[in-house]
# Entry
Amino acid sequence: MSHEQAGTLRAGEYYFDLIMLLVSLVVLFLAYQISGFQLCAAGTFPLASSAVMVLSMLLSLRSSRIKRRAGTARGSEELKLVMESVFTRDVLVYACLAVLYILAIDLLHFLPTSFVFIALSIIYLKGSTPIKAIVISAGTLFSIYMIFQYFFQVLLP
Amino acid sequence: MSGSAVSYFFMAWTDLSLLLLTAGGTFAGIYIGAIPGLSVTMAVSILISFTFSWDINAALALMVGVFCGGVYGGSRSAILLNIPGAPASIATSFDGFPLAQRGEAGQAIGVSTLISGIGGYIGIVVLAVAAPTVAEFALKFAPRDYLLLALMGLLLVGSLSGESMAKGVFAGALGVTLGMVGMDPMTAEGRFTFGSVALLGGIHFVTAMIGLFGVSEAFFQLHSIHLKPIKQDVSKIIPSWQVILKYLPLSIRTSIIGVIIGALPGTGGDIASLMAYDHAKRTVKNPSRPFGEGAYEGLIAPESANNAAIGGAYIPMLTLGIPGDAVTAVFIGALYIHGLRPGPMMMIDTPHMFWFMVGNLVLANTFMVIFGMTGIKIFAKIVEIKKGILIPSIIVLSVVGTYAINNNMTDVYWMMGFGIFGYLMKMFGYQVAPVILGIILGPLMDQSYRRAIMSTENSFGLFLLDLIKNPLTCVLTVAVLFMIVSNTRLWPMFLGLFKMKKSA
# Structure
């Protein structure tokens, strides 16, 4: 592919491509198990699409390797760069908070969980002061409740 | 246009509830689009799950409004903050933001609002004229043609929207594979279900959409959370007639580019506006200022193109059932959910739906101009909403939207998974739009392929022969092959050979 050589390689991009290749190979194997190699069966198209996934990833990896040779960070230096650019503290903390939030909805209820989630998020992301965060959280939830319960008439979690 | 068509065209204009829904949708769309971090695709994706139980006309009125308003609104934050609200507004920021830096944000918004309106109307006129003809033509399409068209759409979106064709194709193929999960509709066999009954129904595309466009974008926005917006002066807004007339020819030219690009399966406002910007740069000899430094021509070209692309994108959506871009992919989903099957038969069986949508688009475009011209002062305020408040609201809305699909928390977990995966994809240079297009087009491609093979009595050789025997199919085959070859190293070699022959 011609225009892939342009630009530099992001820290960790090569490894992400490798993981995607492994995933694609697993998917290819699972697709093969559906109906094997057949011209017209339930498994034909999944087999074709997963083969395209494998092929495109091989091509992407090839250009990543060329870019890597041009000199990019390796080892612990690369890991440090990945942590600084992709898995930043904000992203890690906030992703954990979001996951905890959706897990807690099942145990508690949507309204109290969402209230705590929005308030904590605003405080953590420095959107406002703690008192304002509580007021904004209550206001946002009230609007969501009114709009979705009465206007859209959907069930809240 | 028959009498009943006229009555359906004006249906949204004369029915008060539909009129209010369109107005409300456009109003909401403009402000959703104007808020950095909230995109029109995200808004329509979340909205689709809330309007499941609604009457189709009401649901469409609201979503069309959000679509038109959202594309327009996305450019407001591009001009005021240099943060495009949607991919379709990227080109707008090239000259829009320099204009704002010169203190001309008010005038820039005023001119671009009227020009967006003109672009929008041109797109709708082309849709109204071309769609019935295209639909009639599309009746001649065989399953193999649909397969090729869908493939073309995926290749286009994969190659044009990202930095790497291979990654674009991977994202599209991943989407197609995800679209295969569940029970095969032709043989009732399970595919990628791991013996789980819950997976037999497949992964709902709205779940993937909300995760990939909503949650992943929220995580992505965390990187720019501490950026402080610049305050703007927006006192002078209404442009003079002379200004409008001066830029009208360019606006018409770029609108036509917008409609054509929008009408190609797989390409939408984002590519249309970039191509229009490029066109303006190449053809305008004496711009008001150099391009990139606040040239009005550089603002007008992408603005008319991205709004014209809306009408264009409706053409393949309604006549072929193939989405023009990510938002029309969501729209196709909405039509399916409401029992309509977009494609040539929809235009023939239910022409009233077509004219209703055209009338609705005209109405939404009109509201867009009205709200755009009157609400400039509010834009300047709304784009300053802190991301610390916005991001948790996106997550909560995404949860509510996903839960509303099946009233099931498992969908919410899937959605969060897609959100995290989408964030990683974005951070490592992958596009998420081809995944959605793949999920929607995958089942269509699968069935088209199998029907095409069955029609040749399971002979792959005859299937390949069919790809070149019929003139229409042959054109599509050549187009697909060209798209693949032009992205490989063979293409520059071929061009080199061609040049050598010419010089000899």
Q: What stands out?
A: Chain A touches chain B through 69 residues (CB under 8 Å).
